[in-house]
Design brief:
Layout (H helix, E strand, L loop, with lengths): L1 H5 L4 E7 L4 H17 L2 E7 L5 H11 L6 E4 L4 H11 L9 E3 L16 E3 L2 H17 L13 E3 L9 H4 L14
Parallel strand pairs: 1-2, 1-3, 3-4
Antiparallel strand pairs: 5-6
Helix pairs in contact: 3-4
Length: 181
């Protein structure tokens, strides 16, 4: 969020699945804290967990009377449908809308513009999960585990400063509470 705020973004959306999974809840909690920390306007977009949800995200963003200038994706593969849907309406991702994906994913490596995202070591993550399982099998009762994994921003081309054309004509007052669309 700090990177987007430093580039001038004040209305930053997050797109997440509409399921109750702990990682999604943690992602959303982190988003809410980060948006509050940079004084940006929050906007939560919940999507069904389907292969077409990137297209649905694009439609929702295009239908908004006051569009965000940036969107952070809880699932980086949302970018595939999002890019396609925006372009179908003459909107260019990485120019008219800044997009940041959750993690580096080979499925997204051929997107243009290249998707800014985060790098996390899946090998280390898998190894640690195996250790936790073994610890839980040997402990009685098993102790709860809460860990936050370090991630490194992989700066690419999809998150420039806000575009005036994207939000043109949309100037309404906003409520500082989280808005779900």
């Amino acid at each position: 969020m700090r990177r987007l705020a430093e580039r001038g973004h004040r209305r930053i959306a997050v797109a997440t699945a509409d399921r109750d999974v702990n990682s999604d809840a943690e992602f959303l909690r982190g988003y809410q804290e980060a948006v509050a920390g940079v004084g940006a306007e929050p906007l939560v977009i919940r999507l069904p967990d389907s292969r077409d949800n990137g297209d649905q995200l694009g439609e929702r963003l295009l239908a908004m009377p006051e569009r965000p200038t940036a969107v952070v994706l809880a699932q980086e593969t949302l970018a595939l449908g999002l890019y396609r849907r925006l372009r179908a309406h003459g909107v260019e991702p990485g120019r008219d809308l800044a997009v940041i994906g959750f993690r580096e994913n080979p499925v997204c490596e051929h997107l243009t513009p290249a998707l800014t995202c985060f790098r996390v070591s899946l090998e280390d993550y898998g190894r640690r999960l195996g250790e936790i399982v073994l610890e839980r099998l040997s402990a009685s009762p098993p102790s709860p585990t809460h860990e936050v994994w370090p991630m490194t921003l992989v700066s690419k081309e999809s998150d420039p400063a806000p575009s005036r054309e994207w939000r043109a004509g949309s100037r309404k007052q906003w409520n500082p509470e989280i808005v779900e669309w």
